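Changelog entry: the Universal stress protein record was regenerated in this release. Current contents:
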Amino acid sequence: MTSTLLVAVTEAPVARRAIDWAAQRAADRHQGVELMSVIGGAVGAVGEHAVIEAAMAARQSVLEAEAERIAARGIPVRVRVERGNPVARLVDASTDAALLVIGSDDRGPGTGYERGVHGVRIAAGAHCPVVVVPDRDLDGRTGVVVGVDGSEVSEHALAFAEAEADRLGEPLTVVTAWSPIVTPHNPGVYPPEYLTNMQALSEEAMALAVAGLSSDYPDLQVVRHVEQGYPSAVLNRLGAHARLVVVGSHGRGAIARFLLGSISEEVLAHLATVTAIVR
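Regenerated structure tokens:
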């Protein structure tokens, strides 16, 4: 793995937002950027080769123009144009990246997607953390939100989130959401002491999760948030006012290229802000 940020560049307008996010992060952390486009859709039709070659040449020109814009800020940058399946190519390229940045055409609640589920499949299969940038203006937002549940993968998410909050100089909100056991015979009816104990146990788990933050980042403002609720819903609600949401996703397996995990996939399905998926 290198310190290079890999940015997937498509013809969609959100690609410029993804590039700019990566460029700022690279400038802050003294990293390089690689802009990558993949030309797909080949079916083997007669005359297709010339069409693909023309598309690759056009995309090369676009990437070189973007690279020149980034390099003017003193950021090391290179470009790559390949042909093939975009998901597979980007997943393979992520092996040598510190971070993969992709754009999403999600423009907010009720708008839906234009380009399908490729982003989820890329995030599920990538070998490095993936940052998904939505296609909307996020000016005025502040802070980083991260979900923790006591698992090892949430520890990795917390480490990523605290480093990003420190980089931005903004508060870190650490979130634990818990749900009571479903009781089919008496749905929604629980002894008060049970709910009180669940909240207390979750607060204890939170205290353990954040115990080392003050020593790692003594100037970091940390806000603990523990509440009853479904994790993705809580994260998306708090993320609506944040610059970044960070969630953990469990390890890659034989079918992990297509399955991301319920919580992280639900967070991406209702993309509240720039969102990082960390393993």
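Confidence is low (pLDDT under 50) at residues 251-259.
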